[in-house]
Design brief:
The chain is an alpha/beta fold. The protein is built from ten helices and nine strands. It starts with 22 loop residues before the first helix and ends with a helix.
């Protein structure tokens, strides 16, 4: 997948922010967060790896009174090891904290708490058992993802949701290994899978799955399959033309200029009036000429007409 190119312009809509956050996951993020809010669940939000802020902007829209939102990303600072440095240079060389903050503040009045550091510091920065939703989208290296999952387990509330990005992309095998290892050996229980993210919990997934299945089956723009593996029910979702959920426009939004009215078409030329002279008038004129002209002239005219024919 090609890297979305950053821009120096202010975004007018969420779709203007570069990043890998397809409509399917926007819908799922919104559904999980709104479900928590309807149930009266309170807790902080955490994102590890923010890029240009696309998913963070959506998360911040669901921040409730008294809750905190923390974003942790290296941005332009040095990576903790050579492998991580090579990954950052290849995929995120254009990422800066300034670009993230510009995009985020286009939609919100205040920034989240921003930690410019490796995700490994988050356990010291966020208190255990305080978060209701954690999005992990930082390093793709196994060792880092393994640590991020462990941190999420400690930081989440018992029924909180963790989202793991790129768990099945061909270029991120380290994420796949760390994710399924957590499912098989570390108590993580899948709630659902999208094209690129796994949504899970260390609580009981069944009540959430039942509500999710009801929602998905009520829509024609979701693809759905349910499989079982190693004792886990895997709810697979895919997009069938899903549109992004409604989202407020930024403070910089400008309505498109109205299209100019089409130029008036030139009037078709009026048809040439047909002659109203009766055809017989020509015959009468010829007869009159024959009567009045000398025979020599009349024969010359007839001869000329015959030669033209």
């Amino acid at each position: 997948m090609a890297n979305p190119q950053p821009t120096d312009t202010y975004p007018g809509e969420l779709s203007d922010v570069p990043g890998w956050f397809p409509p399917l996951d926007q819908v799922l993020f919104t559904w999980f967060l709104e479900r928590q809010e309807k149930q009266g669940m309170e807790g902080d939000l955490l994102e590890l790896g923010a890029y240009m802020g696309k998913s963070a902007i959506l998360l911040g829209h669901h921040l409730q009174d008294g809750e905190k939102f923390t974003v942790c990303d290296l941005f332009e600072s040095d990576a903790p090891d050579e492998h991580n440095k090579a990954e950052s240079t290849k995929s995120y060389s254009s990422l800066t904290q300034q670009a993230f903050e510009r995009n985020y503040l286009s939609f919100h009045d205040a920034l989240p708490r921003v930690i410019q550091a490796p995700s490994s510091v988050v356990e010291k920065e966020v208190e255990p058992g305080t978060c209701r939703f954690v999005h992990i989208d930082a390093s793709h290296l196994y060792e880092h993802v393994h640590g991020d999952i462990g941190a999420a387990r400690d930081i989440l509330k018992p029924e909180g949701i963790v989202v793991l990005d790129d768990f099945r992309s061909e270029h991120t095998p380290g994420v796949s290994v760390a994710t399924w290892e957590a499912v098989l050996n570390r108590g993580l229980r899948p709630v659902c899978l999208s094209t690129q993210k796994l949504y899970g919990t260390w609580g009981d997934p069944e009540p959430i799955q039942e509500e999710l299945l009801e929602m998905v089956r009520s829509r024609s723009d979701f693809g759905l399959s349910v499989q079982w593996a190693a004792g886990h029910r895997l709810v697979r979702t895919r997009s069938k033309g899903i549109k992004p959920p409604p989202f407020p426009r930024s403070r910089h939004y400008k309505a498109p200029a109205p299209k100019p009215a089409p130029a008036p078409q030139a009037a078709a030329p009026a048809p040439r009036p047909q002659s109203t002279r009766p055809a017989r008038s020509r015959s009468r004129a010829r007869r009159l000429a024959a009567d009045l002209l000398p025979p020599v002239v009349t024969r010359a005219v007839r001869k000329a007409r015959t030669n033209r024919a």
